[in-house]
Amino acid sequence: MKKTHYLPLVLLLLFAMILAACGSSGAETPVEEPADTDTVEETAPEEETAPEEEAVTEEEAVTEEETMPEEGGMEAVEVFSWWTGGGEAAGLEAMIEVFSEKYPNIEFINAAVAGGAGTNARAVLATRLQAGDAPDSWQGHAGQELIGTYVAAGQLEPLNFLYEEQGWLDVMPETLIPQISQDGNIYSVPVNIHRANVLWANPAILEEYGVEMPTTLDEWFTAMDTLQEGGMDAPLALGEQWTAMHLFETILLASMGPDAYNGLWDGSNDWSGADVTQALENFQKILSYTNSDASALSWQDAGQIVIDGDAAFNVMGDWQEGFFRELGSVPQEGYTWAPVPGTDGNFQFLSDSFVLPVGAPNRGAAVAWLTVAGSQAGQDAFNPVKGSIPARSDGDVSLYGEYLQSAMADWASNNVVGSLTHGVVANDSWKSEIDTAMGLFLGTDDVASFQSALVDACANTGACQ
Ligand code: GAL
């Protein structure tokens, strides 16, 4: 390392020592320092810190040296997400509480930007990254959103050191690690597992109309015909466009089955095939049962319609349950659930994870945040409220409600496939082309054009030859 590289480190070390001398002791802000050798090499040599050394006790000096972040400070951590309401904010708050207990001297700056599925937040994040104004950590989905977007752009630091230090490879599911890794490097800390293919329903309404929970697409169509004949115009509540994409991915899975569905994303199945046409026709039919004001509604609004009994069904990820519970609704009374018809035995998953950007302004504090996000205490505080199951396999099952316990069992036993809308199977550029095609389809209702736009989306983004 050239001598000129030491200067910022030395200044940082001096600054941290002055803080320590002022009573903000490192002992109260225990940062587990990465155990890799690079870090050790980059720690500033002692002789260059001499002027301030007398200001701290030997014990404090050792602590500071051991906990000194490679770059950036420990005073504050800015964490970026899209968890601002409907069960999500409460989940985040619960995890912040664990963080603040463990790191009382680090100010938590909640930089959440409202909007389901991160539609607004991710645009804000992209602008910030472009301007060189990265938050200390941000929410990113495991899978192609992470690997094919942020890692591909060289925006993230590998986190292998933290996995080793925290023993996370022993507790994070084997299915998940490849979704957050490239070339042996692990790039994020998954905080949860969500299920996308859930059909939520109002049990009282089903009973009133004499309808059973459907298990196949045909049963579902028949049930919705019955509801419409009984006077319910729109038995399936839908929200803004990303919720249509969410519904779409579950119908692709229901119509094609997991192997053909996976093949669409790994290039072994052709988007122009008759099985895709059938799936698109099923999707078109499903949309005919939805409310006409969908584009103006959030996912919470669509959930609320079911709870209010104005629609029987809604397809949404299991964060919907966090919202239902926040409303005070009770499982099997206010709402019930099943896999989206035709997808039983398949768990269409996504995982929220947090990253360490290259050049995080407060790197040490960001590592502290990631340590909590990956911890059992952090995950068991966050997930029961958020409406997700812990990414870790050692969560305390007794803390989770009836739905989440069933999700834990399904996650462990089902066939696992990835979500499109929530970043697993397609990178941002492919997903954005699909989104454009979806927008047109919602306006035109033209299946043939939709299919050819989907074929083009795959080709344009290099995923299909
Ligand atoms: C997903 C995210 C979930 C939940 C949902 C609705 O993309 O993974 O945690 O926030 O959006 O906002």
Structure notes:
The protein has 465 residues and is of the alpha/beta class. The chain has 20 helices and 15 strands. It has helices at 6-21, 37-42, 50-53, 58-67, 88-102, 119-130, 144-151, 160-166, 203-209, 217-229, 241-256, 258-266, 274-287, 299-307, 319-326, 363-373, 376-386, 402-413, 428-444, 447-460; strands spanning 76-80, 107-110, 137-141, 181-182, 185-186, 189-190, 192-195, 198-201, 236-237, 313-315, 336-339, 346-350, 352-354, 389-390, 415-418. Strands 2-1-3-13-6 form a five-stranded mixed beta sheet, sandwiched between helices. Strands 14-7-12-15 form a four-stranded mixed beta sheet, with helices on both faces. The protein has a four-stranded mixed beta sheet with strand order 9-10-8-11. Strand 1 (76-80), helix 5 and strand 2 (107-110) form a beta-alpha-beta unit. Helix 11 (241-256) packs across helix 12 (258-266), helix 11 crosses helix 19 and helix 19 runs antiparallel to helix 20 (447-460). The protein is globular, with a radius of gyration of 24 Å. The two termini are 45 Å apart. The model is unreliable at 1-70 (pLDDT under 50). The structure holds beta-D-galactopyranose.
SSE layout:
Layout: H1 6-21, H2 37-42, H3 50-53, H4 58-67, E1 76-80, H5 88-102, E2 107-110, H6 119-130, E3 137-141, H7 144-151, H8 160-166, E4 181-182, E5 185-186, E6 189-190, E7 192-195, E8 198-201, H9 203-209, H10 217-229, E9 236-237, H11 241-256, H12 258-266, H13 274-287, H14 299-307, E10 313-315, H15 319-326, E11 336-339, E12 346-350, E13 352-354, H16 363-373, H17 376-386, E14 389-390, H18 402-413, E15 415-418, H19 428-444, H20 447-460
Parallel strand pairs: 1-2, 1-3, 9-10, 12-15
Antiparallel strand pairs: 3-13, 4-5, 6-13, 7-12, 7-14, 8-10, 8-11
